[in-house]
Amino acid sequence: MLKTTLAIASLCLFTHHAQAQSLEDDFEGNSTINSWFGDDCNLNTSLSNPVSQGINTSNTVLEYHDIGGSYANVRFDAGRNFDLANYSTFSFKIYIPSSGLTGNQNNQVSLKLQDGNLGSPWSTQTEIIKNVSLDQWQTVSFDFAADPYINLDPNSANPLQRSDLNRVLIQVNGENNSDEVLAYIDDFFYYDTVQTVISFDQLIWADEFNYTGAIDSSKWFHQTKLPAGGSWYNGEIQHYTDELTNSSVTNGELKILAKKETYTDQGVTKQYTSARLNSKFAFKYGRIEVRAKLPMGAGTWPAIWTLGKNISEDGAYWQTQGFGNTPWPACGEMDIMEHWGTNQNYVSSATHTPSSFGGTINHGGQVIPTASSDYHVYALEWTNEKLVFSVDSVTHFVYNPPIKDAATWPFDDEQYILLNIAIEPGIVGSFTESAMDIDYVRVYQQSSNVSIKEETKISKPGLKAFPNPVINELNIDISGMTGEPETLSIFSIDGQKIKTLKPLVSNQQIQVTNLDSLAPGAYLAIFEMEGQKQEVKFIKN
Question: Would you name the residues annotated as active-site residues?
């Protein structure tokens, strides 16, 4: 296969810039919304607050008075298309007096997004519905990345993948009815007021699979121990093995192969085998990137995912190392890619937390017609604020719960990577084998915390180090430079000096040996030539 080249010596940047402009209205003269309109609804944007109490003691509110219109709503046009992939949350305060209602409709409020440039804007509609209480002010938030949404056209894409939405509608107690509703609305806000700049510019761990044979046991662990009861979770029917027939490296790629074969292990015989790999590297925050081609066949279930290093699952790598003190889902799970062979052209991502797990409500996905015939880059960007899941840089799910606690956000501790193919009970009888081929696995983090002194800044661009990643001996090409360095120092990426040594120089190359004692990770080699400090970055496998 054509191997993707990784240039370690030059920084690989993953940066998101969002030019922020808020949409807000406090109905007291502080507004970035040009005009509100009412459809089948009486509208007053400067009503003296009739219930100045609780969380809203402001002077002026919007009055919403549906006098029986079938499709009553209030709306405004934003004047630009929403960037929901990065900014997905709308909110406002609402008060519904019980005395202003007729009929028996469910007490709810909807926020709808449409393309107001079309003659039939409702055809593009996506909405979120929230239940509300009567006779009290409350703040209601609508997050198109985390909340269940409804597309009027079921063929419409996930809202996070769309760029055609520019109109906001608010509707109280549903539509297609003649019941009356009186409501007061205040402090509308669209959360795009903070400029986000995230740069994952430092490769800290990787497997490029540039070797042949068994997987690198310094990086990966075969998880084969059956859970209690003799079968894997979710009714899966495979054995996970450490056989080369189920996981091996060839032609620059890792092949995880699910097979139909009779196999006995731990006193249990099963008719299918596969592999489940745990990374021996755990980390907190960063960008995880896996370039892969997926298996196919109804009943196959490949996954690229993470679990908390603290999971108490018997037989998981970090549990065998003494870290297993937290059950699932309290440890947290981030599913970067899941693919069910029964839905061939669709890949999805999800989170599992104590607040929602198993059939979690926190998920998203996208259609990838070539998921099993071509390579795609599956990625997760993980910060202390949110999780962003994508395929080929197209975001399809953002997890950003408004309240982050142990129930919703167990993601401030280290996680590790898992790669596997499960077999479901409904596997088709004609299935024989299918593989997930992986070109590389990479983990990046931000280098903003690097504390190397100013004097160690790189002063000659283009210095090349090879092989990179390195096992024992590193070569640095100094072609075109004069002189030789007297010493060379190795620093960890956080600025701690590891060692200083006398390098060997031959044929315009600096040779640094005996690196096998370094722990896997990212390092800096710093030396002085031509009167200036020189720096190259390298990865130790």
Answer: 333, 338
Is 205-445 in the same CATH topology as 19-190? yes
513 with 502: CB under 8 angstroms?
A: no
Q: What is the DSSP letter of 519?
A: P
- Cα separation, 182 vs 537, in Å, equals 64
State both tokens at 411.
Answer: 């993601």
Ordered DSSP codes for 344-402: TTEEEEEEEBTTB-SS-S-EEEEE-TTTTTS-EEEEEEE-SS-EEEEETTEEEEEE--S
3-state secondary structure of 292: strand
444, 287 contact by CB (below 8 A): yes
Fold of 19-190: Jelly Rolls (2.60.120)
Contacts 24+ apart (CB under 8 A), 7-13: 8/203, 8/465, 8/468, 8/469, 8/537, 8/538, 8/539, 9/462, 9/463, 9/464, 9/465, 9/468, 9/536, 9/537, 11/201, 11/202, 12/201, 12/203, 12/444, 13/199, 13/200, 13/201
- Tell me which amino acid residue 199 is: S
239 and 422 Cβ atoms separated by less than 8 Å: no
pLDDT in tens, 284-293: 999 999 999 9
Any idea how long the chain is? 541
pLDDT, tens digit (0-9, with 9 covering 90-100), for 464-518: 788 877 888 888 888 888 888 888 888 776 556 788 888 888 888 898 888 888 8
For 477, half-sphere exposure in the C-beta direction (CA atoms, 13 angstrom radius) is 11
Look up residue 132 and give its amino acid: V
Beta carbons of 307 and 335 less than 8 angstroms apart: no
The answer to whether the CB of 205 falls within 8 A of the CB of 541 is no
Confidence band for 145, pLDDT divided at 50, 70 and 90 = confident
Give residue for tokens 């009888």.
Answer: 429
Assign 3-class secondary structure to 418-435: EEEEEECCCCCCCCCEEE
Which residue(s) pair with 150 in the sheet?
127
Chain CA centroid to CA 43, Å = 41
Q: CA distances (Å), 40 to each of 74, 115, 178, 344, in order?
A: 9, 20, 11, 44
The span from the CA of 56 to the CA of 50, in Å, is 11
Q: Are 8 and 21 in contact (CB under 8 A)?
A: no
CATH classification (class only), 205-445: mainly beta
Architecture of domain 454-540: Sandwich (2.60)
Query: Domain boundaries in the chain?
Result: 19-190, 205-445, 454-540
Q: Which token pair is 284?
A: 């907190």
